[in-house]
Design brief:
This protein is an alpha+beta fold and 256 residues long. It has a seven-stranded antiparallel beta sheet with strand order 6-5-4-3-2-1-14. The protein is 22% helix and 47% strand.
Length: 256
């Protein structure tokens, strides 16, 4: 009886170990794999340029140093009577605006606004690059299906320190279980009248010098009771409204 009892104790212990065995992929492993298949280390030392809507964007990243630029023509000509070219630039030290290549001072409140706008476009252009930073927190939610494709559903949050101006934003990524590419992205952000929600469907994938670029169909929920976590279900049910398309044009990549 003593040996029989010992056998059952060992059996129960082994069974419990099997029941709590974690998914063979952690959220961190999945995101790192997704970064790798999307360009990985190449992005860290590169010059990337593209057009988005009526503006030109340029990102130079090299050994931890970076310059993110947005260049456009000011049609109001409020600074000069001639054609006015505005360059907004962010680097490791902060923000600077140039008007016809001359540095201009701007109010701190406007500098924050301009920086967020420039950074947002560059941020989305090379996702999921940057999601292995110290301020990034990853949580594995579940394995699910979107349009009959198996996906790892992962939540991304940010620490206040090092998380940027919009550190309170929350993202969810649907990573294809076979390719490890981010096929869908959703995020919540703070608006003046409450919480805003967006769901993006990647399309028009192309690789340029080893770096993956996609365009996005940008959706918003029709139902006011929508939550970030159920946007994939609402997408499947046709309960999201197409708001816009995020299209990058004239992309060029130079690996440094």
């Amino acid at each position: 009886m003593k040996y029989l009892s010992l056998f059952f104790l060992v059996f129960i212990y082994v069974s419990c170990k099997k029941e709590v065995k974690p998914n063979r992929f952690s959220a961190n492993v999945i995101i790192n794999k997704s970064i790798e298949v999307s360009g990985g280390e190449l992005i860290k030392n590169s010059t990337i340029e593209f057009d988005f809507r009526d503006k030109h964007y340029k990102a130079i990243r090299k050994e931890g140093e970076f310059i993110l630029e947005r260049v456009f023509t000011d049609k109001t000509n409020k600074y000069f009577d001639t054609i006015t070219q505005i360059t907004d630039a962010i680097n490791n030290k902060g923000f600077q605006r140039f008007v016809n290549n001359f540095p201009m001072s701007v109010l701190d409140s406007m500098a924050v606004k301009y920086s967020a706008s420039v950074n947002s476009v560059h941020y989305f252009s090379v996702l999921p690059h940057g999601l292995n930073g110290k301020a990034v927190h990853k949580t594995y939610l579940e394995q699910t299906k979107v349009k009959d494709i198996d996906c790892h559903k992962i939540e991304i949050t940010f620490s206040e320190e090092g998380g940027g101006e919009d550190f309170e934003d929350v993202f969810i990524y649907w990573i294809n279980t076979q390719t490890f590419k981010a096929d869908y992205i959703a995020y919540s952000y703070n608006e003046d009248d409450g919480l805003g929600l967006r769901f993006r469907e990647a399309y028009n994938e192309r690789y340029i010098n080893g770096i993956r670029f996609v365009d996005y169909k940008n959706y918003k929920p029709i139902n006011e009771n929508a939550t970030l976590e159920n946007l994939d279900s609402l997408f499947e049910a046709g309960s999201l409204s197409l708001l816009s398309k995020i299209e990058l044009k004239n992309i060029s990549v130079n690996i440094l």
